């Protein structure tokens, strides 16, 4: 039986929600090993002068505890 833990991470990108998600996983993987999945819980964006300037995600990252 595997023991899994979940952490919540927020990240942002000026490119896309996909890039923000990748940044969240990359940053978490610096201190968390055995990451198995990521769930995008919410997405939002910052709008400035009618233009989207920043994409934000709130993700749940699941990893196995060995």
Q: What does this protein structure show overall?
A:
The chain is an alpha+beta fold and 66 residues long. The protein has one domain: Dodecin subunit-like (2-Layer Sandwich). The chain is built from one helix and three strands. The protein has one helix at 17-28, and strands at residues 3-13, 35-48, 51-65. A three-stranded antiparallel sheet has the order 1-3-2. The mean pLDDT is 97.
CATH topology: Dodecin subunit-like
The CATH architecture can be given as 2-Layer Sandwich
Q: Biggest β-sheet, characterized?
A: 3 strands, antiparallel
**Could you name the CATH class?**
Alpha Beta
Give the terminus-to-terminus CA distance. 11 Å
CA-atom Rg in angstroms:
14 Å
Query: SSE string, helix = H, strand = E?
Result: EHEE
With strands numbered from the N-terminus, the spatial order across the biggest sheet is 1-3-2
The low-confidence parts are none
What is the CATH homologous superfamily assignment? Flavin-binding protein dodecin
- Mean pLDDT across residues: 97
Proportion of helical residues? 10-25%
Shape: elongated
* % residues in beta strands: over 45%
What is the quaternary state of this protein?
single chain
Individual helix count? 1
Number of domains: 1
Specify the structural class: alpha+beta
